[in-house]
Amino acid sequence: MKRNGEVMESFKEMALDWKVPYPTNRYCNPGVPESAKMEYHKHCDPSNLCKIIWTLTDCHSVVPPQPYYEACVASGCSEEHPSTECQSMQTYAALCGLHGVCVDWRRQANGQCEVTCPQDQVYKPCGEARRNTCFSRDVAMDAFSSQNNTSVFVEGCYCPDGKILLNDHDGTCVSVCGCTAQDGSVKQPREAWEHDCQYCTCDEATLNISCFPRPCAESSPINCTKTGFVRKIKARLDDPCCTETVCECDIKTCIINKTGCDLGFQPVVAISEDGCCPIFSC
């Protein structure tokens, strides 16, 4: 039925009469006469792609195919947008999925409407509406389930069987849910490791990483009694994460008495036996 109440036999003509302004949709441009915007071939044969809709008989009772078949044919015969048949078929399949009917129409399209997925994922014609991740695996699908618990199917890219998305933003599929460590590796729940002189663990409930400084044995008190030696804190040779106090020579702390030598004598420098300070003699 058109806006003026006239009953039309053609779904296409009826739909065009109800066209409304939609600036963000490139297929909907008000103010341009339809005759100038869309031109159809008078003798345009429907493509085999559009005919696939008639093979999806499981969905015909819940989503009538005729309007979507006409839309597919019209888009295929359009001089302006001749390559939108895939979108028409995708729309029909999506509606079937919302009604709990799985249709694998792309398999019959002979590669015309292929979907490219990220390296870790695979295409599924009838996947779950909610893509579960390691962080949402215990959340129910209330938003996607109807009152009578009818399944909802959505085509798209999913993790292969036996794997799950680590999170909802980087598309990484993992076999076991875990924590992403500092170096990008995945740690299993309750796994412990050492990083940057800290002990870290993967929390099983939150999949968050918690770290704390690795404890070090206390150094024994030390007194530097030899001349020229001072206390310094240095990293342990056997464990760089921990420190120890050592006595180390610091010649800047030495008091050096230089004496002049009589004629015929030369100055000689020696190291004190009870320290590291130089001793001058002739």
TrEMBL record:
Compartment(s) of residence: Secreted
SMART domains, sorted: C8, VWC
InterPro entries: Mucin_vWF_Thrombospondin_sf, Ser_inhib-like_sf, VWF/SSPO/ZAN-like_Cys-rich_dom, VWF_dom
Protein name: MUC5B protein
CC annotations in GO: extracellular region
Location (main, coarse): secreted
Coiled-coil regions, chain positions: none
PANTHER family on file: EXTRACELLULAR MATRIX GLYCOPROTEIN RELATED, VWFD DOMAIN-CONTAINING PROTEIN
Span of domain VWFC: 179-248
Signal peptide: none
Keywords annotated in UniProt: Disulfide bond, Repeat, Secreted
